[in-house]
Fold:
Amino acid sequence: MNEAVLGSMRKVGARLALVAGTLAGIAFVFWLVFSCPLPFVASLWHSSLDGTTFNTRYRVADGLELTGRLNGKTKAEVLELLGPPPPTDKFEDHGLVYVLGPERSWISLDYEWLLVDFDSTGRASNVTVVSD
Structure:
């Protein structure tokens, strides 16, 4: 191949790399703004009961599950931190059940929930985000 063709191929490769990097950056920013788990902040948990554009309550629940922050806490301590859960007939075999809102997907058919189970000593032993 001559030098002109190689130079042209390098330019095309550089442009493709730039486009791929830009798309990866956009995907990362999207994940960071809309999906990344958040640390527990009471004002974020309590202010977004209806769900928000940024899925704040969902993301705080994801953070609680990921970090295990509730594990080992008594029911009273969990209630003090999260507040009382709304009444529901879902997941009756679990200790505390918090509704997060419609499922995070393009088509939301179900709801997502934060489930807190307690062991025989009355301490939180399992914290899970599930959909029904």
Notes: The chain has one domain: 35-131. The longest helix spans residues 3-34.
